[in-house]
Amino acid sequence: MPQEREIATRIVSLSELLELVAAIRAIAASQMQQALHSLKAIQRYSETIHEALADAAQMLPSERRADAGAEMFKSALIVFCAEHGLCGGFNERLVRRAEQILADNNRQSVLIVVGSRGGQIFRERGLRPDLLLPMATRCAGVTSSARHLATEVYSLLNERRITGLEVVYQQEADGEITSIERRRLLPLEVPTLERRSMQIPPLLNLGPRRLFDGIVAEYFFATLENAAMQSFFSENSTRFRTMEAAHQNIKKKSEDLTKLARRLRQEAVTTEILDLIAGAQALSFE
Questions:
Q1: Which residues, in sequence order, are CB contacts of 62 under 8 Å at separation 6+?
Q2: C-alpha distances in Å from residue 61, one per residue of 64, 165, 212
Q3: Predicted structure pTM score
Q4: Which alpha helices (H) appear in the chain, and where do they start and end?
Q5: Model confidence pLDDT, tens digit, residues 101-152
Q6: What CA–CA distances, in Å, run from 10 to 5, 15, 119, 204, 250?
Q7: Which end of the chain is more exposed for a tag (fewer CB within 10 A), N or C?
Q8: Are 75 and 105 in contact (CB under 8 A)?
Q9: Architecture of domain 22-243
Q10: Are 219 and 49 contacting, i.e. CB atoms less than 8 angstroms apart?
Q11: By C-alpha distance, which of 33, 275, 264, 261 is closest to 138?
């Protein structure tokens, strides 16, 4: 009986845990769908800014185009991680990749981590981020997180604390395969596109240099927003798979315990019947 009561208690606990895991899995799935929808719009926006940057670069005086590729003295490394856990090895893979990059740079880079959980893992590995920012926990907040990050990066650039910039984030590929993407934003590599013939030339109210600088700012933000949303989608995709595996594991353990409880009850019933038969036989011999 004590063993049966213990098993029954464990079955109830597993049932409650199963409901919790199922809820987290459902939230992750919902966030994935929202992020996927947002990514399509962000990518279209990025393509438009990419083309505008190439067009603006062609308007610059040739002797000033080299300014966009200024020599890099100190670089900043931005790593997009998760704000919370329950996402498998999502953060650990990013931290290991960042460690490799920092080692190649002799740890001279300014380390910017987006995501509190990732920042905690960095500190556990002996790497203290120079700047730790929160990562969005819902799709609607990703753009705000990217804008907050862009503001901090612009401050570092204006103060001349950094002249180089790299972004590291995890990106989903083919549904399940993930890859760690590393993109360099500074020194700026101006995209080159084939000159397009326009029947009506654009009406410009700004000088070429001011126009170019404004589009560069939008280009940086578009890149950061895309990286943030890709990371958010990959994080929730990893969390969904982790919760799905946990759901199946808990369900299997619950089924095994249910079978064990039934077997113990059957053994108890069988023992009672045998005791009754033995008692009846003993009485018949008296």
A1: none
A2: 6, 25, 11
A3: 0.84
A4: 2-59, 90-104, 116-124, 142-158, 208-285
A5: 999 887 778 999 999 999 999 999 999 999 999 999 999 999 999 999 999 9
A6: 9, 9, 35, 71, 11
A7: C
A8: yes
A9: 3-Layer(aba) Sandwich (3.40)
A10: yes
A11: 33
- What is the total residue count of the chain? 286
Q: Say if strands 177-186 and 164-173 run parallel, antiparallel, or are unpaired.
A: antiparallel
Say which residue the tokens 């393509």 belong to: 47
Helix axes 208-285, 90-104, angle to 10 degrees: 140
Instruction: Please name the residue ranges forming H helices in 60-170.
Output: 90-104, 116-124, 142-158
Q: Using one digit for the tens of pLDDT, what is the confidence trace for 63-97?
A: 544 444 444 468 999 999 999 999 989 999 999 99
Domain boundaries, the chain: 2-20+251-285, 22-243
Among 35, 5, 14, 4, residue whose Cα is nearest residue 170: 35
Distance of CA 105 to the CA centre of its chain: 25
Which residue in 211, 48, 224, 75 sits closest to 135, CA to CA? 224
The 3-state DSSP class for residue 182 equals strand
How far is 191 from 9, CA to CA, in rounded Å? 63
For 81, other C-beta atoms within 10 Å of its C-beta total 30
pLDDT confidence of 262, banded at 50, 70, 90? confident
pLDDT at 71: 47
Nearest to 56 by CA among 186, 202, 164: 202
CA distance 250 to 264: 21
Dihedrals phi, psi of 135, to nearest 5 degrees: -100, 145
